[in-house]
Amino acid sequence: xxxxxxxxxxxxxxxxxxxxxxxxxxxxxxxxxxxxxxxxxxxxxxxxxxxxxxxxxxxxxxxxxxxxxxxxxxxxxxxxxxxxxxxxxxxxxxxxxxxxxxxxxxxxxxxxxxxxxxxxxxxxxxxxxxxxxxxxxxxxxxxxxxxxxxxxxxxxxxxxxxxxxxxxxxxxxxxxxxxxxxxxxxxxxxxxxxxxxxxxxxxxxxxxx
Length: 209
Description:
The protein is α+β, with helices and mostly antiparallel strands. It has one domain (41-204). It has 5 helices and 11 strands; from the N terminus they run αββαβααββαββββββ. It has helices spanning 3-11, 40-43, 63-75, 79-86, 146-151, and strands spanning 16-21, 24-29, 59-60, 122-126, 130-134, 158-161, 173-176, 179-180, 192-194, 196-198, 202-204. Helix 3 packs antiparallel against helix 4 (79-86). The chain is globular. Residues 42-208 form the Type ISP restriction-modification enzyme LLaBIII C-terminal specificity domain.
């Protein structure tokens, strides 16, 4: 607030104090009990840690860009070149063997041996305001969070805590129909709370009244 409104507010003795609970930023009057600011985890008990791709090339501004990157990996006959393009991590290498993500028709063979056809890119929410495309192949993602993919459908909504860093800009919570990666402009990702625990809009993730 600013100007006359702010002066009237402070003159009335109602100076607001910021209160942070589980990444959900609220404002409470000075002296108000903390119970007036419930934790987001109390309202929506089930939450999942954000996605961690582990390599930036699996995300892009459009599907065509991702297909070009995938094809470059597939065409790399030299193992050293393929490894450099893949960018291995402690969680994923060309020799990682993992199953498909729920709802995604992708290969499961080790990428060191065969790459196969490009996975169909999917749209995701990247941070609070950006939309990107992602290759939804479990072999490419360090922490794909299969439990989120299992419940991601046209009925689902995700409430995303963006983490709190003092004096950092941006919203504290974002609601998205797209699967979010949990990226926070404050630099500290928060947790993801699906509205429903099961596919098809079944079993709301809400605490009993």
